[in-house]
Design brief:
The protein is mainly beta. About 10% of the residues lie in helices and about 35% in strands. The protein has three helices and 17 strands. The strands form four sheets. Strands 7, 8, 9, 11, 14, 16 and 17 form a seven-stranded antiparallel beta sheet that branches. A four-stranded mixed beta sheet has the order 1-2-5-6, covered by helices on one side. The longest helix has 14 residues.
Length: about 325
């Protein structure tokens, strides 16, 4: 691409990471008239942008970004007519930092500007999952595992998240957290606000008695009243763990390392809140339930249950990797 462009997206949009990747790619590796001429506007939105109400939460001033480059008329006036109307001088990146939507005094819920994405220097910080259902900054020491039975005839329902034709955005996850096929890990209440800005990922050490199955990882913000709102999530179909162009089946009794991309966000989790992690194996109808068989999808109606195991030990430390800004990092969920 060799033209200036505006990239508009939301953290709960089904195209969220694609929007960010396109901006970074064209801004840094585009043609001579594209490099340095891109603008990015990222809000707390799903596919409908410039809204305050997203899912079950309302984000203050989310409909009022401090820029004008998203106005198509002003953008075309500047770049097609050559009129200096101030669009060219606006920041390259305008992004919303989500926060506690129940506390008007909480940090976050504000617009920020930057020259690039990711907007601030961060430290990749592991959050380890423990077999007692806790999540901590230090790795486990005992050799432990947790297992769950996933039946494709009774998949976990999709509740919000990055959807296009389903109800999207942040939604209370407590209805699915009570299911036996959702493994849940929760930190202690945070003694100080904790910012997460950038791309989140997970490393899982897993095994299964099926030749193929799915793994979902979801990060949530748990409010003091118990509501558990999804922040970001990712999924991986195990047959494609090595490549999307070649299927490789799981072998019973063997432990595999999975790297799962949860995409990007910017949020300040407020003091007194908890971080929560889900590991599950389905999310329907947002995703087709995996039949757990070594056959092409939809070739047969046959399916089978799978017993999936997550390792939580010093040798196999399953964990999330959170992008914590280098300034203001607080080890607050020990």
């Amino acid at each position: 691409m060799n033209v200036p462009a505006v990239h508009i997206g939301g953290y709960y949009d089904i195209f969220a990471q694609g929007t960010l990747d396109a901006f970074v790619g064209y801004q840094t590796r585009g043609g001579s008239r594209a490099r340095g001429q891109q603008k990015l506007l990222m809000g707390p939105w799903a596919h409908g942008v410039l809204q305050r109400r997203v899912g079950e939460l309302e984000f203050p001033n989310a409909d009022k970004p401090p820029c004008t480059f998203h106005d198509a008329w002003r953008w075309f006036e500047a770049h097609l007519k050559g009129i200096r109307n101030g669009v060219q001088e606006e920041p390259s990146v305008v992004y919303y930092v989500m926060g506690d939507c129940s506390d008007p005094r909480a940090p976050g819920n504000e617009w920020r500007t930057a020259r690039q994405w990711t907007p601030v220097p961060t430290r990749p910080t592991p959050l380890y999952l423990h077999a007692d259902g806790t999540a901590r900054w230090r790795p486990p020491q005992a050799q432990r595992t947790l297992s769950a039975r996933y039946d494709p005839r009774n998949p976990v329902p999709t509740v919000g998240g990055r959807e296009l034709n389903l109800p999207a955005g942040p939604r209370d996850q407590r209805t699915i957290e009570a299911r036996p096929d959702v493994l849940v890990f929760t930190t202690d209440p945070l003694p100080a606000p904790l910012e997460i800005t950038g791309r989140v990922s997970a490393v899982l050490w897993v095994e299964s008695d099926a030749p193929d199955t799915d793994f979902f990882v979801r990060l949530c913000d748990v409010y003091p009243d118990g509501r558990s709102f999804n922040l970001c999530e990712g999924a991986l179909r195990a047959r494609f763990r090595e490549s999307f162009s070649r299927e490789v089946w799981l072998q019973r009794g063997r432990v595999y390392r999975l790297q799962i991309d949860l995409w990007s966000l910017s949020v300040i989790v407020n003091r007194g809140h908890r971080l929560r992690v889900h590991i599950t194996f389905s999310s329907a109808p947002g995703y087709d339930p995996n039949p757990n068989t070594a056959t092409p999808f939809r070739q047969s109606a046959a399916s089978r249950p799978a017993v999936n195991t997550v390792h939580l030990s010093a040798r196999y430390p399953s964990h999330l990797i959170l992008p914590i800004p280098r300034q203001g990092f607080s080890r607050s969920a020990r």
